[in-house]
Amino acid sequence: MSSKDWLEKDYYAVLGVEKSASSDEIKKSYRKLARESHPDHNPGDPKAEERFKTVSEAYAVLGDEKKRREYDEMRSLFGSGAFRRNARGGGQPGGMPFDVSDLFGGATGGAGADTRFGGGGFTDLFSTIFSGGGGGAGGPARPRGPARGRDVETEVALDFEDAVRGVTLPLSLRAPGVCDTCHGNGAKPGTHPVACPVCHGAGVTTRNQGSFSFSEPCRNCQGVGTIVEEKCPECHGTGGVTKTRTLNVRFPAGVADGQRIRLTGRGEPGERGGPAGDLFVQVKVRPDELFGRAGDDLTLTVPITFPEAVLGTDLRVPTLDGTVTLRVPPGTPSGRVLRARGKGVVRKDGRAGDLLVTLDVLVPARLSDEARAALESFAEQTPPAAREHLDARVRRFS
């Protein structure tokens, strides 16, 4: 991805979001578009594959807070006319003759194409142009060193009990990885990368333009310092291939819906010997047919009859690892919550939450003649409900 791409491509339009969109909105749109255009869902469709690459490229920038800020700054600056093209194709920052192509190292998509700012950010772009160095004012440009790999995010659905108890599951990922044939150096087996004949391994070149001296990443080796004369037949000199990896991921007991598990160093491999990125696993917990969850507590709703609520009863209810008997006291109203201590989710310190049982008093829709007669007899002997405060307000409107 070159600097020129940042000016020419509207990544917000690619993802179908506004420039003011939040990180969550960007992520949601990316996931939807990635699912729709993923090669696995569109086998043999080159347009879908190209669309998937474009969407992934856009999210790689807008999904990273730092890159998104730099992208917005760059497009805002150039879109405002801060660099005006003149008749010979150059620009005039501050009234001085300038060739806009210097911003991109003459990037045309070929061997001389420069990647973004060598990892230094938007500020380093201008320090390279106007002070002659990417390492600070007056300093020489630095060759592109090791670069950390990108983070990878995926989603896993867990059963309710697995999330509560903890589980280890195999996770298959199709993502870029180090080529097993050349072990990442891009050279044909039996050969090795050689020092670039243009920069002699330095990774940078210096040239003069008027009163300015420009140090920039070498266009011949793209700032790496080495070139591959005989490319690996598997990765074609890139050092990486897209492949399927299977990882055994441990989900700790009590993992919650929406929680992200971070696996350090399990993301995309780094470039030029840099460290790998991280893998973030987003957890989705399937609902259980009986139990719910509130933090470390499990919840359960149990129906009881009217006589059980009035007279009281011993209630046997299930837990995740057995059963427990709870005492329903006489005169229990509908909605009362009984607590079974220690029967919830086990915390990290070994202690457990509780099981919260909500009682739901059932009102029968139909009664037999005998039941109705018994209930009417019960009603005659039962004191009326205390509604004096309500009756007083009703009388005001009579």
Please, could you describe this protein's structure?
It is a single chain. The chain has about 400 residues and is an alpha+beta fold. The longest helix is centred in the first third of the chain and has 17 residues, at about 45-60. Helix content is about 25%, strand content about 25%. It has a 4-stranded mixed β-sheet with strand order 10-11-15-14. It starts with a helix and ends with a helix. It has 10 helices and 15 strands.
What is the SS-derived class?
A: alpha+beta
Distance between the termini: 79 Å
What overall geometry do the principal axes of the alpha carbons give?
elongated
Stretches where pLDDT is under 50 for at least 5 consecutive residues are: 80-141
Strand percentage, roughly? Answer: 15-25%
Q: How do the SSEs run, as a string of H and E?
A: HHHHHHEHEEEEEEEEEEHEEEEHH
Rg on CA atoms, Å? 33 Å
Task: Report on the biggest sheet.
Answer: 4 strands, mixed
Mean pLDDT score: 79
Q: What spatial order of strands do you see in the largest sheet?
A: 10-11-15-14
Number of strands: 15
Share of residues in helices: 25-40%
Helix count from the secondary structure assignment? 10
In short:
The chain has 398 residues and is α+β, with helices and mostly antiparallel strands. The protein contains ten helices and 15 strands.
Produce the secondary structure layout.
Elements: H1 3-8, H2 11-15, H3 23-37, H4 46-62, H5 65-79, H6 122-130, E1 152-158, H7 160-165, E2 167-178, E3 194-195, E4 204-209, E5 212-217, E6 226-227, E7 240-251, E8 260-263, E9 279-285, E10 292-294, E11 297-304, H8 306-311, E12 313-319, E13 322-328, E14 337-340, E15 355-361, H9 369-381, H10 388-395
Parallel strand pairs: 1-9, 11-15
Antiparallel strand pairs: 2-7, 3-6, 4-5, 8-9, 10-11, 12-13, 14-15
Domain J: 10-75
Keywords: Chaperone, Cytoplasm, DNA replication, Metal-binding, Repeat, Stress response, Zinc, Zinc-finger
Subcellular location: Cytoplasm
